[in-house]
Amino acid sequence: TKNVGRGTPAFMAPEVLLSEKEEAIAMSFSQLKKVDIWALGLLFFCVVNPGLTSAYTYEFKAKGVFPGNQICHVKGMMSRKQLPQTVPQFQPFQSTIWRNIFDAFERCAAFEIEKRPTAGEVLEILAYSLPTDSSTGKMTDEEVMKHNSVKVCN
Question: What is the CB-side half-sphere exposure of residue 127 using CA atoms within 13 A?
Fold first, then answer.
């Protein structure tokens, strides 16, 4: 595709954001899949940080960055290999009941493209810590209700 560098800067993979346009266009299909895995990881970040409008929201607010100027700031953070800041009130959930989603974010957001998981591996990470019925391998209705009944807002 020739539109590799299009999209929301906060979700762009470092190899796209920090490369010359010609280098990004010349990526192989397997590299392009890893670019998508990065973006998926940043989506997982937003899932476990409710209330943020995008990844790097804290950083943008701290520096007074407006949407039109985000790309320069994201490039700077990417060059320093800086991942987005988490919402402190949700950190207890990120280390417990949302751990598998947070783990998926951390694995997908590896700055080294070759260290990112495949889509199949992401599914394994997400499924890893879910409670299941030992006879069927699936979550029971009660477990689903218990797993999803956490209040995150006051």
Answer: 10
User: Which are the contacts of 140, defined by CB distance < 8 A and separation ≥ 6?
Assistant: 133
Say if CB 52 and CB 46 are below 8 A apart. yes
pTM of the predicted model, to two decimals?
A: 0.77
List, for residues 64-92, the tens digit of each pLDDT value: 888 778 888 899 999 999 999 999 999 99
CA 80 to chain centre: 18
What interhelical angle do 119-128 and 29-47 show, nearest 10? 30
Could you give the CA distance from residue 88 to residue 85 in angstroms, rounded to a whole number? 9
The amino acid at 77: M
Torsion of CA 3, 6, 7, 12, to 10 degrees: 90
Q: What are the Cα distances from residue 39, in Å, to 13, 14, 89, 106, 111?
A: 7, 10, 24, 12, 12
**Closest Cα partner for 38 from 71, 67, 66, 7?**
7
